[in-house]
Records
---
Amino acid sequence: MAEPLLAIRDLKTYFVSKQATVKAVDGIDIEVDRGQVVCIVGESGCGKSMTSLSIMRLVPRPYGKIVGGQILFDGRDLLQLSEREMADLRGSEIAMIFQEPMTALNPVLSIGTQISEVLVRHRGVPKREALDRAVEMLKFVGVPRAEQIVREYPHQLSGGMRQRVMIAMAMICEPKLLIADEPTTALDVTIQAQVLDLMKKMRRETNTSIILITHDLGVVADMADHVVVMYAGQVVESVDADTLFSEPKHPYTRALMESIPSLDEDKDVLYSIPGTVPSAANFPKGCRFAERCPIAKPSCFEKMPELREVAPGHWVRCDLV
Amino acid sequence: MSEYVLEVQDLKKYFPIKSGLLKRTVGYVRAVDGVSFQVKPGETLGIVGESGCGKSTTGRMIMRLTTPTSGKIILDGKDITHAKGEELRASRRKSQMVFQDPYASLNPRMSVGESIAEPLIVNKVLPKSEAFERAGELLKTVGLRASDINRYPHEFSGGQRQRIGIARALALNPKLIVADEAVSALDVSIQSQILNLLMDLKHQFNLSYLFISHNLAVVRHISDRVGVMYLGHLVEIGPKHSLYQDPLHPYTQALLSAAPEPRRTKRRERIILQGDVPSPANPPSGCPFHTRCPRVMDVCRQTMPKPVQVHPDHWVACHLHG
C-alpha cells in the first residue's frame, strides 16, 4: 500500500507556563490516506482542535509549543520546515476551514479579493484572472449571484453562504489536504446538510483528503471513512467508520454513543458519563478515562494503557478489551 | 384550576425597523407571526426550528421578557399578556426560565447561593437566612453540594453551571419552566446528565416544560409533544411519536431527514433544501415555506394554509393536507 499523505507520529503539543504544563495533545498517531476522510471526534478540551492547529503550525504562541513528534506530509516533516516554507504550504497544499466563518473572514475585504488573494499569493495568477477563477469557484460551491457576491463583504452574507465562501477559498488552489474544524457546528441542520453535501462533492471531484474535526457523531457517521476518537489529549480508539459504529470497543466511545438521544428510538434514561474530563494540567498516571469508566479495575488507575491493535486496523487504548 | 398551564393564542411579535434621521419606522421584522399552542400540567412541549424561526422570541414573550405585539398569553388561567407590576411578578413565580449559556446567565460577582436565593428574597417568599438554607437544598436537588452556596460561578464547569441555573429556576416552585437551548452549549456526555436531571425534576415536582431547541433528537427525547416553527409560524404540532414517525409538513420532513444520525446502517434518504430561510423582514406571500418547498403548488404562493388536524392531536399548516 502507498504511503499515507499525512502521518502524525507521537505528536505532543503542550502549553507551558510558570504555573503549569497543559498537555493539550499528548502523543497522538494519526494517518490520512489520499482521498480519505478522517474524522477526529471528541469533546471540548480533548485536543482535537490543537491537533489541527499543530498540523498547520498555528499553535498559539508564546505558551503553546510542539514539544515532540513528527508530522509527515507528502514525505516532508512539517515540523522541520522554516516559517517561510510553511507559509508557502498553507492555503496551497494544506487548507483549513474554521467553525466560525465570520471571524475567519476579513470584514473589510470583499469576498472576491479574499478568495483571489490565495491564487495570487500561491500560484502567481494575475489579479484579474484570479477574480474570474473566484467567481467560478463560488459557482461551484453553490453560491448564487456569484458575480455580485465577489464584490460584497462577509457581513452581507448568511452563515451558510460564508461557510461556502470559506470552502471556496480553501479549495481554490486544490490542496491535497483540507482540515475542517467543526465546519458545520454553527450552522442550522438544513444548511449543515448542504455544506456536508458540498464537502462530499469536493472530495469526489478533486480527491482531496479531509480531516474533519467534530464533536457530533452524526456528522461522523455521515462523512467518515476512518475515525479517530480522542480523549484528554490522547487517541483512545482508531478504526474505520463502519466498525466504529457497529463495534465500538473503548468504554469511552461506547458511553459517548449511548449518551446521545435518538431520532427514532425511545430511551427512558440516557446513559450519562459521570464526572468530568480530568484537567490537562494534571493528568492521572493511569488511564485518563478510568475515573469515569463503568468497567474500570484497580489496575486501570495504576498503569496507562497502550494503544493496541485488537483486531486488524482496530486500535484501542484500553487493557480490558 | 385550568386545563392548561400555558395557553398561547395567535401570538405575534413584530420588531420595528427604524431608519433615517427621524428614526421613522420603515418596516417590521415579523419574528413571531401568529402562534397558538397549549401546555398541559406535567407536559413537555418541545419547540424546534432553525435560527430566526422565532422560537426564542416566543419563549421570551411567555416569560414577558419582551411584550407581544398582539395575541394572548394565559398562564395558569390568568391572562398575563399585559400584566404589570405586582401582577407580573406573581406570574414570574409560576414560570421560570433556563438559558442556553451558563456562563452568561449567572452573575460572576454573586455567589451561587446569592444567585439562587435572590428570587426567593425579591419575591418575599422567605427571609434571607432561610432563603440561603433553601438554596443549599436546591443545590442538592440538582446534584451539587449544599456547601457550594459560597462558591462563585467561575469555580464550576459548564454542566455544573447549568445545574445552578436550573436550581435557580426551581427556587420559586414554578409550574412552568421555559428552557431555551438549555443543553445546546454542553458536550454530549454532560448534555445527557442535564437531560436526565430535567426529566427527574419534572416527575418530582410535576413541572411543565417549554423546551426550545434546534436539536431534533434531544427534543424528541424530552418532549411529549413537539411543535415545529418556521419563519415565525408554527407549521406543525403533534404528539412526538406521531410527528417523528409521520411528519406531515414538507419542512418537518426535510428537517428530520437532514439531521445526521450517529449510525451507518438504515439511514434515511436526505432531502436537501435549496437556499436559505427568507428574511422575516420581508417574508414571502402565502405559505412561508413555499420558496424552499420541494412540493410547492400554485396555491402555496397565494394563500397561507390553515392548520388542520390530520391525526389525533397532530396538526399541520400545509396545503397538501386538507
Note: DSSP finds twelve helices and twelve strands in chain A.
---
Amino acid sequence: MLFNSMEFMIFFPVVVAVYFILPRRAKQFWLLIASYYFYMCWNARYAVLILFSTVITYGSGLFLQKIKETSWDNLRKIKYKKYMVAFSFILNLAVLFYFKYINFAFDAVRELFRLIHIELHAPAFDIMLPVGISFYTFQALSYTMDVYRDEIYAEKNFFRYALFVSFFPQLVAGPIERSKNLLKQLDKPQKFEFGRAREGILLMLWGFFLKVVLADRIAVFVDTVYGDYQTYQGMYLIVATVLFAFQIYCDFYGYSVIAMGAAKVLGIQLMENFEAPYLAVSVAGFWRRWHISLTSWFRDYLYIPLGGSRKGKIRKYRNTMLVFLVSGLWHGADFTYVLWGGLNGGYQVLGEMIKPLRDKIVSAFNLHRESLGHRILCMSATFMLVDFAWIFFRADRIIDALRIVKSMIVVKNPWILYDGSLYDCGLDSRNFNMMLLCLCILLFADCCKEKGIQIRNVIARQDGWFRCILIAGCIWAILTFGIWGPGYQDVNFIYFQF
Amino acid sequence: MKCVMKRTIGCIVTIALTAALLWYSTGLLERKESDVKNAPFFEQEEYDVLLFGTSRMGYGVYPMELWNDYGIVSYNLAGHGNPMATTYWTMENAFDYTTPKLVVIDCYLLSSEVKTHSASSSIHLSFDAFPLSRNKIAAVRDLLDDDDAQNREAVQDKKTRSEVLWDYVIYHSRWNDLGKEDFEPEYSKEKGAEHYARVIPIEKMEQTPMERSLEEETVSIQYLRKMIEECQDRGIAVLLTYLPSSADELNRQEADRVYDIASQYGVDYINFLKEDVVNYATDYCDTDCHLNVSGAGKITDYIGQYIVEHYDIPDQRENEAYKKWHDDYRDYQNSLRDELRSLESLDKYLMMLSNEHYTTLIEIHNPKLWADDMYCNLLTNLKVDSDQSTRDTGVLIVQEAGKQVEWYAQSFDTQQSVESLLGRLDWTEEEEGSYQVYRDGELFYEVTEEYHPSADVRIVVLDKDTMEIVDHTYFTFQSELKRG
C-alpha cells in the first residue's frame, strides 16, 4: 500500500480512529496488526521475512541481556555477546543478501571470470525484492547493537518489539529509527491531542505535495530524457540531471515527512531525515543533512567501530570510503550505486586532503566564509558535485552514465533553454512552469528551515478561519495538481527498492 | 468544552470547504463529451422512445428529425463501441429518470463476449453524465469486473471503477487544458445523436452464403435478453434493429441471430442489411459504417414511419409540455446551417443538402464536375438524374432534398432567363467581372469579386419555407472542388 494511494486514504483514518478508541493495552496490538496488514498489501508472503528478522533480533536481544546479567567474567561475557551479535547479524544479513544481492554477486563473479576468459554458468534466481527489506533489517540490527552496547535494555514484550520493527509509517522507506527513541514511545501510547494531530496532518500534506505534485511531475521529465538520452542530448541531460537531484530529494523527503506526520498523528515522534540538504556548503555537510537516519546508522555502527577518525588520516580516509561504498551497495545491487557511493566518499576524502590549500586560498584572498556570496558559491559547488554523482545513481548502467556525461560535455545546445524545446520532454509548458513554481516553494521552505522557522508553527499561530481555508486549499491543490490516478500510474517511491 | 466545540467546528468547516472545492472542480475539470451528449436527457422527464446501441445507432438515428417529422419524443443514448452489457446498464440508469413507451435497441456487436469497450473514454461517454446512483454503482461493479477482459488496459486496473464513480480521479490533470467550453459548456442540440458531415463510399460485401451462424449464447446476447425482459416487465415495447453496414460475415451472423431472439420474445425487428434504404456510395461517413447526415436522415425516416405504424406513440407536436422541443429543433437546424456554411469541400456540401428544409440552386460552370463519380452520386442522391442530363454547364434547382428537380442547360456567357420552380430567374451582367441574378424582377443574389465570378460551381441554398438565402457559396477545382 502506497502512501499516495486511495487505499491508504481509507486505511490511515481507520487506523487512527480505532487506535484512539481502543484501551491503552490494546493500542500496540492494533498498531501491530495494522502494520502487518500495511506490509502484506504488497506481498503477504514477505511478512514472514519481517517476522523472521523480528524473532532473531528479539531473541538475540534477550540472550544478550541474559549474558549481561550472568556472573561470568567480563572477557567471557564479551565473547558470548559477540557471538550473539554475530549470530543476529549473519542471519539477518544472509536474508538481505539472498533477496537483494545474490544475483548481483553471481553476475559480478561471472564477469570477473570472463576477464580471465573463463565462462561461468552461474544460476540466475528469480527473486522479487521484498519492499523495504534494507530498512527494517537495519532497524532490527541497530537494536541488537544497542543492546550489545548497553545503550538499552532488551525489550521483553515481543509484540511491542515486533511493532518497533514493523511500525507502518516508517516500515518501507524509513526513517531508520533507533530503539532508544521508538521503543520507549511505543511503550507509552499517547492520548489524542488536537494540536499534535493537526501538526501531523500538515506534515503529511507537505509530504504529499513533495511526492505527488513535485517529485512525480519531475519524474515525467527526467524519465523522458534519461529514457532516451541518445535523442535528448547535451543541455537536455544537464537540465534532467539537475531536476533529478530534486526529484529524488522530494520523493524521499516526501515519504519521510508523510511517515513523520502519520506517526505524529498517532502520538509518536520520528526523527528528522532531511535538513535542507541542498543548502549544505560542503559534501560532508550534505551528508549530515541527507537521509540522516541512514548516515547516522553507518556512522554509529560501521564508521566508529572501524576506528572512525581516531587512528590517523589514512585510516579515516579508508573508513570514509568504506562507509560510502557500503552505503552505495545498500542503495542497490549494482555497480552504478557502488560508484555513486565511491564518488561521494571520494569527494570527502579529497576535500579533507585539500583542506589546507582551501584554507590558504580563503586566507590569501581574504574571503569571508560566512558571507552570502561565499556560501552561495560553496552551495553551488556542493550541489554540482552531488548532482554529478546522481548521474550514476539514476543511470541504468555505468556505460550509460558515462555516455550521458560525455553528451553533457560534448553536445552544445544551450538554446533549448529558451526556445521551448524543454516543453517537449513529457511536460507541457503549463506543467513545466508549475514544476518551477513548486520548486520555488520548496526552496523557500528549505530556506525557512535553515533560518529555524517552522512553517507549520507559523500556520498554527494563525486564526482558525485562515487555517481552515489554507488546509482545504492545500488538499485541493495537491489533488488537482498532483500526478496521480489512472491517467498516470501511481509512481512508487524511489527509496522502496532499497 | 468551548475549545472542543471550536475545534470541531473548525474541522467541519475545513472538510466542508474541501468538499466544496472538490465538487466545483470535479464539474469544471471533467471532459464535457458525456455532458454535451447526454446532459440534455435530464431536462425532460418523459420520453416516448429511447434509442440504445453503439455509435452506429448514435450516428444513425436523429431524435430531432423524429420529432419534426412524426412528433416522437425520443433520446439517443447510444455510446461509442458499447457492447450490449454497457448498453444494458445505460438503459437501467436511464430508467431511473424516465419510463419510455418504446425502446429501440441496435444489435450490432451481438457476438461480443466483453462487457465494456477497451477504451475507457467509451465508458466515460456513457456514464459521466449520469449522477451517482445505486444503478450507476451497480453498473460499474458489473462492467468493470469483467474477467474476460482482464488483459485489456482499460479494465485491468480496478481503479477504473473509482474513475467512473468519481471522474475527478482521472480528469484532475486537465487543469492545464481548461478552455471556455469548460466554463460555459454548449450542450448538443441533437438529443443524444451525433453526426459527421463527411462522405466515404463503402462497398457492400457480396452476400455469399454464410459459413456458419451465430449459435453461441454470448455475453452480449445474455444482456440483450436481460434488456428485453426488463422492458417487458415494465410494459415497455421493444424494437430491435440491425443498422445497415457493409454486411460482412459477422454482421450477417449477428443480424440473423436477432430473428430468433425477436421471435422468442415476440418483439419487432428491422434488419437493415436486407432493406434497401441507404446509398452505399453517399451515405456513410467512414469505413466503420457510421452513417452520415444523408444516410441517417433516411434511416431516421424509415424508423419513424415504422414506429408510427406499429406502436401507439402519440404525436406530441401539439402538446404544450413539449413546446420547447420546437425551439430545440430550430436551434438544431440553425447549428446544421452553421456547419453547412463552414464546409470547405463540395462532396460534404452536396451531402448536407439532403436536408429537406432546403431548396437549392446550383450553377455548374465547369462540366468537369460530371466526370467525377463522387459528385454524380451525390447529385443522384438529391434525385438529380445525372445520366440523362446534358452533363454540361447549367443550373440545377433541387427542391426539398429532391422532392422536385429542374435542370437548365446554360452557358453563362450571355444574359439568360428561365422560368423555374423558383419563379423567373434572370442572369444579367451589369459590370464586367460580376453578375446579378434577379428572381421575378427583384435582385436574388449578386456575384461580385468577393464571390469569385469565375468559380466552377456556385450554390445558393434557400430556406424552403421563407425562401431566404441560407448560404451562398462557390467551389473551384483544385485537386477536388474546394471552397474558395
Note: The interface with chain B takes residues 6, 194, 428, 430-431, 434, 464-465, 467-469, 471-473, 475-476, 479-488 of chain A (CB under 8 Å).
